[in-house]
Amino acid sequence: RPRSHTVTTTSSSFTANLSASSSTLAYDREFLRTVPGLLMVTEIVLGLLVWTLIAGTEYFLYPAFGWVVFVAVFYWVLTVFFLIIYMTMTYTRIPQVPWTMVGLCFNGSAFVLYLIAAIVDASSVTKDLDNHNYNSWAASSFFAFVVTSCYAGNTYFSFISWRSRTLQ
């Protein structure tokens, strides 16, 4: 006996929404002209200096410098990640995430841990340890304090942004 071959297809609304929402990525050029954007770029450039100045030496012989490299690399990667999120306006596509709170927690933790790392870096730099690495370690200590102040500024702006959202 002949069989009837009927095929029924259905369209998912999730697939339609996904293809419609991911078709283009926005690009916010103006973010780099804001104070938080400039601070973020400064954090990336000077944070790169902090960890490369230490990583180019025999820092692994001294555990204190290992901590500084860990903090510097960890927050450098996360800052690049957040810069991409802000530049591509990805935060507008994920409204479930409280971005102002995430930014405040990120910048606040970066400020505190970078401050600790900068103090550890500065207190560990002596000519007694290793004379040929002294200049690199001293420069990394200076830049660590500059990056710390940048994260402090971004923490302030994140707090202002968070405060204005909670008052609404």
Automatic annotation (TrEMBL):
<dbReference type="GO" id="GO:0019911">
    <property type="term" value="F:structural constituent of myelin sheath"/>
</dbReference>
<dbReference type="InterPro" id="IPR008253">
    <property type="entry name" value="Marvel"/>
</dbReference>
<keyword id="KW-0812">Transmembrane</keyword>
<dbReference type="InterPro" id="IPR050578">
    <property type="entry name" value="MARVEL-CKLF_proteins"/>
</dbReference>
<keyword id="KW-0472">Membrane</keyword>
<feature type="transmembrane region" description="Helical">
    <location>
        <begin position="97"/>
        <end position="117"/>
    </location>
</feature>
<dbReference type="GO" id="GO:0016020">
    <property type="term" value="C:membrane"/>
</dbReference>
<keyword id="KW-1133">Transmembrane helix</keyword>
<feature type="domain" description="MARVEL">
    <location>
        <begin position="31"/>
        <end position="163"/>
    </location>
</feature>
<protein>
    <submittedName>
        <fullName>CKLF8 protein</fullName>
    </submittedName>
</protein>
<dbReference type="Pfam" id="PF01284">
    <property type="entry name" value="MARVEL"/>
</dbReference>
<feature type="transmembrane region" description="Helical">
    <location>
        <begin position="137"/>
        <end position="159"/>
    </location>
</feature>
<feature type="transmembrane region" description="Helical">
    <location>
        <begin position="60"/>
        <end position="85"/>
    </location>
</feature>
<dbReference type="GO" id="GO:0042552">
    <property type="term" value="P:myelination"/>
</dbReference>
<dbReference type="InterPro" id="IPR013295">
    <property type="entry name" value="MAL"/>
</dbReference>
<feature type="transmembrane region" description="Helical">
    <location>
        <begin position="31"/>
        <end position="54"/>
    </location>
</feature>
